[in-house]
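Hallway conversation turned thread

IA: we were arguing at lunch whether anyone had actually written out Pentraxin family member end to end. Turns out nobody had. So, for the record, here is the sequence (193 residues) and right after it the structure tokens. Reply here if something looks off.
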Amino acid sequence: MFTFPEETKTANVRLMTASRNFDAVTVCLRYVGATNLSRNHALFSLATKFVSNGFLIFKSPTEDVITLIVNGKSTNFEVQDYKRNVWHTTCSTWDSASGLVQLWFDGKPSIRKFTGGSNITEPSVILGQEQDTFGGGFDVKQCFTGMISNVHMWDYILSPCEIQRYVDNLNFTPGNVTCMIFVTIDTPIKLPI
């Protein structure tokens, strides 16, 4: 579990990926935002050298909206029962062949929406901050405060059954592209022992 206890423009966790080219992505994570976190904030930020928002899961200040941005194209999803200071589970999928994205929030799937997009290459993946440039360009007003755990990333679209297994914390297939290497920047982040 990663703890982001205060607003900062430097604290982040970098995830090194084993793959360098993606034509599909699924990202699942569990998170709880701080009670006072009512502004924009990034939950997962993947940037490339060409697009700062290659695959971004972004919580809008509106209580019931999560935005997915793929290759710079934004799509809003309304979610039900969003509460601060409560653990939530989010899974997001995108496929370049169909151009479709989908959000699963606390086990409830959204409709699929079209964003298009070409392959994502040579990504920089960061938790806790939103990348405005490749690997940086952080804004304290978009940082995450709270806790994030169980981050998994796949280079394919998980089936609805497999996503439900993740949500229910059952025996699911772990993400196949995030390595065990975590690099932390700044002292406020607390890593598991």
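OS: looked through it. The chain has one domain: 2-185.
IA: good, adding that to the notes. The chain has one helix and 16 strands.
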